[in-house]
Amino acid sequence: MTNQYRGINSLVNPVDDKPWMFYSFNDGVNVGLVGTSYIWQTPLKREERRFETIRSIEGEPQPTWEWNATIYPEFLADIDGDGRLELVCRMLVGYSTSPRGIAVYDFETGEVKWRFDMPCIVHSLLYGDFDNDGKTEFIVGTISYKNTSKIINGFDDSSGYLAVIDTSGELLYQEQLFEGFGSVNLSRLPYRETQDKAIYATISTDERKKRNSVTKLSWDGKRLQKHESWDLGTYFDPRGQPYQFHNMDGSRKWRLFLADKSKGLIVLDEDLKPIPHDYQGFIKSICAVGDLDQDGFSEIVVYTADKHIEILDHNLKVRASLPSPIMGDEAVRLHLAETGFDSPMLVAAISGNQVFYYSYNQLSAFVIFRNWVQAYHWLITLILALFAISSLSFILYTQLQFRSLS
Predict the structure, then answer these.
(1) Backbone phi, then psi, for 295, in 5-degree steps?
(2) pLDDT at residue number 378
(3) Number of H helices and number of E strands within the chain?
């Protein structure tokens, strides 16, 4: 086993606004977590914090597969009001139950404050005071891979669950949403902008016979109450969705984008009402949403079934398209790469150890025409030459006819 870095994520300390980068590693038996923060000065200063390692309770992994345990940080906040920061993490591993669930660290000491162990993987995690009682809670959505058989804390890996856990690790609510493969994907509107505490749960099973849907819920302190719901006739691809609401044009109209395997692109508003559009492409995955050219409007980066990268504007019009640079049937992931303050983002196409970067810019009609002329100058030259030959031939023919009549 190697100490390969995994689960890299960055979070901001809410006390001093200092950014921290976290990465996880394991040695085949223990999985650890390290946090680093840099002060960009001369000389460069680096602060590092190491967090308590978590050991596989099942002992040495089987030699036929890699124990890829990862600790993935999600939130850095004072979750319980004790004046100390906590680092909230998801515990992930394949083909094992150890470790899976939630781990909460004391950010200052690096010690584990509590764990909530599960046999399934926490796929989505929301944090906030959802019932206005002055206390925060975690809303949990799981993904079922059906690759473990244990039952821990009432959960299994053969079903999809929705759960609520308080800030001390106590289970407050649990609901089984489906059986079989699939995921429960959670999202919410940005609270600072909307003051909305609604919870949206998208069920994605990747199977036609299972119910795929989006449901709007609220937490009343005892149970999750269902409100609006939108049912899909077919099913989503669970690997090809962002599952987050986006404000595309600054109008405070929030949109949820989903890629249906048979219906194509689906757009829902915050009340789960479908929004009509004219885009007819068949999307394999919705990869990213962001303001690529810093014009105040967001774009959507999608990967199509015919292996093209397309950029849609806020009106869902195709503004750019190019074939995938990755040849063959290898999986392609698309991400947006930050390039610095006040700089446009790049589109990164990743497959294996290959990375391709693309910039996106809106071009004027003159620039588009100039580029077209440059790209097809040979064709334009040929057409002009044929036109000149045809014109000359017509003139000579007309002159001959005139002389013959004379």
Answers:
(1) -105, 10
(2) 77
(3) 3, 26
> Is the CA virtual torsion 283, 286, 290, 296 positive or negative?
positive
- pLDDT given for residue 60 in this prediction: 46
Residue pointed to by tokens 């640079």: 325
Q: What is the pLDDT of residue 333?
A: 84
- The full length of the chain comes to 406
Q: Can you give the pLDDT at residue 1?
A: 40
- Side by side, which strands form the sheet with 333-337? 333-337, 346-351, 354-358
Predicted local confidence at residue 2, as pLDDT? 46
Compare 118 and 398 and report the one with higher pLDDT: 118
Q: What are phi and psi of 41, to 5 degrees?
A: -145, 180
Structure tokens at 176: 């089984």
The identity of residue 200, as a single letter, is: Y
CB 278 within 8 A of CB 316: yes
To the nearest 10°, report the CA torsion of 207, 336, 276, 363: -140
CA distance 147 to 155: 14
More confident position, 232 or 233: 232
Query: For residue 62, what is the DSSP state?
Result: P
Instruction: Determine which helix (DSSP H) or strand (DSSP E) holds 164, and give its type and residue range.
Output: strand 159-166
Q: Are 113 and 119 in contact (CB under 8 A)?
A: no
* Residue 384, phi then psi, degrees to nearest 5: -65, -40
Q: How far apart are CA 252 and CA 286, in angstroms?
A: 21
The dihedral sign for the CA sequence 77, 203, 9, 168: positive
**Cα distance between residue 95 and residue 287, in whole Å:** 27
Cα separation, 324 vs 201, in Å, equals 32
Coil/strand/helix, residue 382: helix
Q: What are phi and psi of 190, to 5 degrees?
A: -60, 120
What phi, psi does 374 have (nearest 5°)? -65, -35
